[in-house]
Amino acid sequence: MRSNHVRDWSLRALGVAAVVAATLGFSAAPASAHNYPVGYAPAENSVVTEQPGRFTITTNDTLLNLDGTGSGNAMRISGPTSAPLYYGDGCVTLFGPKLETTAQLGQPGEYTVTWQVVSTDGHPVSGSYTFTWQPAAGQVLAQGLAAAPTCGAATPTDAAATPADASATPGTAQSAVAPTDLLWIGGAALAVILAVAATLLLTRRRPTP
């Protein structure tokens, strides 16, 4: 009789181990499927002398765009480091594996591009990089905004500090997202931990002597 209880306990323990292994395997597998950046424009650590107009993050795979508006994907352009302001209108456009926004830069110095994308597997991935802005003569210097812009909201018109090159004027983004502070989502990991704990509590039973 005792051997039956022992066997029953062993089967339950094996089942729990299988559930834990499968759960951990499931939670770990998507990590390798997360999108990651393969290119920036302007390039990381580059020196830019002419208004880039457009800023692009290129990833290794198609970005998720479930609602057709690019919700969850965002880019912010800020700088210079000595007195940072925000540039652009906060709108983004998705082109397969690419995320793009438009902006004119302001005073010379180091600028930061902060971005967030939604991977093909549904997980958000975020990061940032910097480049140096050293405008050549004749470049338009945008006024910048004290607060991060929200796409679609009315914003003050940037003032030009020097003569403009009309060809550098950025186009209008096709899809919009209200930018928010870029946060990692930990809810899925917490749910996995709770599921494993609940399984252990429900299946645990001491063998009867």
Automatic annotation (TrEMBL):
Residues 152-172 are annotated as: Disordered. Gene3D superfamilies: 2.60.40.1220. Residues 34-132 form the CopC domain. InterPro entries: CopC_dom, Cu-Rt/internalin_Ig-like, Ig_E-set. The chain crosses the membrane at residues 182-203. Pfam families: CopC. Residues 1-33 form the signal peptide. Keywords: Copper, Membrane, Signal, Transmembrane, Transmembrane helix. The keyword Transferase does not apply. The keyword Transmembrane applies. Coiled coil: none annotated. This is Copper resistance protein CopC.
